Prior knowledge:
The complex is a heterodimer of chains A (261) and B (350).
Chain A: H1 8-31, H2 34-42, H3 44-77, H4 83-91, H5 98-109, H6 116-123, H7 131-156, H8 160-167, H9 172-183, H10 185-200, H11 204-209, H12 220-230, H13 232-256
Chain B: E1 3-11, E2 14-22, E3 27-31, H1 38-45, E4 53-58, E5 61-65, E6 70-71, E7 79-82, H2 94-104, H3 109-122, H4 138-150, E8 156-160, H5 168-184, E9 188-193, H6 196-202, E10 205-210, E11 213-218, H7 220-225, H8 230-236, E12 239-246, E13 249-253, E14 256-259, E15 265-272, E16 278-280, E17 290-302, E18 305-311, E19 315-320, H9 322-328, E20 335-340, E21 345-349
Parallel strand pairs in B: 3-9, 3-10, 7-8, 8-9
Antiparallel strand pairs in B: 1-2, 1-4, 4-5, 5-6, 10-11, 12-13, 12-15, 13-14, 15-21, 16-20, 17-18, 17-20, 18-19
Helix pairs in contact in B: 2-3, 2-4, 3-4, 4-5
Amino acid sequence: MRRERAPLAIGILAAAGATFFILPLIGLVVRTPWADAAKAVTSADTLEALRLSLVASLSATGVALVLGVPLAWMYARIEFPGRSVLRALTTLPMVLPPVVGGIALLLAFGRRGLLGSWLESSFGISLPFTTAGVVFAETFVAMPFLVLTVEAGLRSMDSRYEDAARTLGAKRWTIFTRVTLPLIAPSLFAGAVLCWARALGEFGATITFAGNFPGVTQTMPLAVYLLLQTNSEGSYILSLILLVISLVVLVGLRHRWLGSA
Amino acid sequence: MSLQAEVRVTAGALEIDMRIDVAAGEVVALLGPNGAGKTTLLRALAGLVPLESGRVALDGEVLEDTGSGRYVPTEERSIGFVFQDYLLFPHLSVLDNVAFGLRSRGVGGAEVQRRAAVWLERVGLADRAHSKPSALSGGERQRVALARALAPDPHVLLLDEPLAALDATTRAAMRRDLKSHLSGFRGVRLLVTHDPLEAAVLADRLIVMEHGRHVQTGTPAEVTSRPRSPYVADLVGVNLFRGVAEHGSVRVAAGAAVAAAGAESGDVFAVIHPRAVALHRSRPEGSPRNVWHGLATGIELYGDRARVRVESEVAIVAEVTPAALAELKLGEGGEVWLSFKATDVGVYPA
């Protein structure tokens, strides 16, 4: 293949686009007080927020897999009335301002919410301002990424493999677990990674629905924002930690699953 | 084992309305052009496409009957299906592909391994057991697909264009291979193909299907000697006319008649082999009863044969040697005379 040379205008605009992303990252690296970094990284507060972030985002990804894959399957395979409306509604959190999502969650699962008041009176379960609430908020915002990715995977999969399994006597659940899921594994994995990344960075819905209690609901993004008000250098360090985690995941997975060029 | 089916299914713009009977001991090929509805019909027999109306029975046991509402789902039908592009599960090893049907049908662990291995041995792929399908050649995939379909001991074997995905060199060898596997299988054997050679080699009986409808049925020899549609005549490479017979000739079109020894009366087909048609530069003398004048509209060379299409009152193809063609100094668009004997025209009722 002939090596193509970019037209000047495109080259300049592309370089500006790349700089736009890279400059803030450089800023973060340059301005981080490295001398204090080691101390900050190992401080109890940071570790607590980091632990909570990982636990909550991985739990949210788990919940999204359990609920989202069947939802994606329904969207891809079953024609039912109102399917496109339902799909639009469940995709809404992708475009909705997360704070609005948090308020909506409060109105549904809050103490005086539609389901929340019943949960509280019947079982004494209260979700807001708990770690479970964090998982709720993150799942709400992040699951659509998984659903859409998995649905696309199911739609592009050759469903005749499922026919082949049927002619071999496989029942529906066997087909789903032994044929369908393995065949859409790349989409499943990509969807889970996108979902997890979105959950890890979740801020608005979390702080609105679950609040900001260290050790209980204060995830890394919340801790970063809080520190910025009082100790901005500390917030740089936490930001850098999040950056490193994201980068490691992105680089580590890209080659294996996300089809790098 | 025998299969009786009446299938009425609409697939897009195509309405399929077919009766299929496969008797014990015979291999039947469903032959037809692309888009005739062959694959849909096969899928309907397997229960993958629901019948609009009709009935499928295996050995008298009803698998589907729209009259009574009975429907045995695909996974409970004792059917082995070889798909056109094989559809081997790409994430499973060759052995696990072959074992899939055994596991689904509840065969236990060690027994599954043993029986799958026996089948791989039978198709000569024991050494590829742990390969992924993507590492196999086309011919090897075809054999795995066959082993996978046969391993659970089905009563029916359905094959959809089993050799179409192979290149020409592999195809001839695989055709022989498939023939021996087919003769080793005791159940109902039905294969779909658009390749007349494949159909003739593999099957005892052909069912020709066009536009979702039955065209003709018979042994390969019967179908080739008495084609009943332009498609079949094309496959066989003969000239076919349909017309009304009256006293030794067949009126095939407005004004055109073919003198034919066997023509008596009624709606008939007249078939003329291209080799029986002679070409001449000037009006031939002598005995042939059929002498036509026309334009050569197409000349094609096939090895040591040249096929010349002549437009006269009706179009007809003549087959001559390249030497004879050179002697005629005939080019496309040139005028030519042709003749054939009345005794070389086969006539049979339409």
